[in-house]
Amino acid sequence: MKRICFIYSFLLSSVILWGQNISFGKITITPYVAGLDPTTTKLLETKLSRIVTENEVAGGFDKRFIIVPSINVLSESETATIPQKTSTKVMITFFVGDGVEGTLFNSYNMEVTGVGDNHNEALHSAIRKINTKNIELQTLIAEAKKRIIEYYNSNSPTLISEAEGYMAVQDYENALSRLAVIPSICKDYHKVQMLISKCGNKIIERDNNSLLTKAKAAWSANPNESGANEASIYLSKIVVSSSYYKNEIENLTKKISQRLIQLENKRIELAEAKILSEERLEAERINASSRVISSFISTLPNLVFNVLSWF
Length: 311
What we know:
Elements: E1 2-3, E2 15-17, E3 20-22, E4 30-31, H1 38-54, E5 65-78, E6 86-98, E7 103-116, H2 119-128, H3 135-168, H4 172-179, H5 189-221, H6 225-236, H7 243-264, E8 268-269, H8 278-298
Parallel strand pairs: 1-8, 4-5
Antiparallel strand pairs: 2-3, 5-6, 6-7
Helix pairs in contact: 1-2, 3-4, 3-5, 4-5, 4-8, 5-6, 5-7, 5-8, 6-7
């Protein structure tokens, strides 16, 4: 018995971007390190990433709010040990604010001492000693979160209005770029959620129509087993969101099966297209929006931060 399977089920997955699970509604403070050697930069970025993750200000799409470190050497001396080591005491200042507007929220100074074979090793030793659970650091982040919430409570109506304007001309990428940065704790987030879902629904329709067109073209060009297999690949990616897509899939698969039976005189079994439940469909809408905004953001140039006045 010959079998051609058209599978209409989907695995919902988190969007992976920048090495993190990225999702809508999260307050985000992004580590920003500049002007240092690669090793020092990597060490600081690792510490800053732990700080924002532990304080639950990571994993969102927003990049305008940043935490920036500055290092000042307070003293350096050689130890009396054998072999002799370098001991370096540094002050690391953590600045948090709006990097786009150049608004500094607050800062915190931490003194740490490191020991190594030379200046760089001692400096790196000091950076490794940064306590990411420091109470003052937690307070710094907590105060910044309040400022970020205030910012979006004030600016979300404008961002929502801009998003609706982009949606009206079917520019869902730019619409989502406005909606994706608004935290769930903000007063207008219920409307944001509905618009994100609406964008996702339109994206699904756009993708479904494209996949249907490709499937029909593949079969029309090669009305044989090869064309059937190619068409099935496109059909398997369709989110069966309504009876329209269910019927379109079934009509095409019926044509394919009838033609292949004529060619090979064999019975062919086809999987049934089933409309997704509302719960699964809503998850697909959010997933579609996440996928599109992640791809869109990855193509944008890096933000230029205005932080010189902070130091």
